[in-house]
Amino acid sequence: MNLMTLLQSSTAAQSGSAGGGWMSIAMIVLIFVVMYFFMIRPQQKKQKELNQFRASLKKGDKIVTVGGIYGVVSEVRDDKLIVEIDANVKILVDKSAVVKDMADTQR
Predict the structure, then answer these.
(1) How far apart are CA 85 and CA 70, in angstroms?
(2) DSSP secondary structure of the chain
(3) Does the pTM of the predicted model rise above 0.70?
(4) How many Cα atoms within 13 Å fall on the side-chain side of residue 9?
(5) Which of 1, 17, 46, 75 could bond 82 through an S-S bridge, CB–CB 3.0 to 4.6 Å?
(6) What is the Cα 94 distance to its own chain's centre?
(7) CA-to-CA distance for 86 and 81, rounded, in angstroms?
(8) How far is CA 71 from CA 62, 76, 94, 102, in A?
(9) CA distance 23 to 80
């Protein structure tokens, strides 16, 4: 009898852990779904907007670079900009270095 009770309890434990295995997998999948919607997707949206902003730059736009240089776009080339940072002071900047539009602020 003792052996029979032991076998029944081990069988019950195995069937209970099998359900727990599926729950663990479901929780991991749920964590990845939540991470996608709260972290990855918003970052992709932000990157898309930044790329659209960089593609739409034109002469006269006020910008800020990654390095914190404020200026006005004086010429747009394929992947570079000529930015006027002071009277008669112009620098060549890569478009990927532009991070912000400062059109609504005053310098």
Answers:
(1) 6
(2) -HHHHHHHHHHHHHHHHHHHHHHHHHHHHHHHHHHIIIIIHHHHHHHHHHHHHHHT--TT-EEEETT--EEEEEEE-SSEEEEEEETTEEEEEEGGGEEEE-TTS--
(3) no
(4) 6
(5) 75
(6) 21
(7) 15
(8) 6, 13, 13, 9
(9) 52
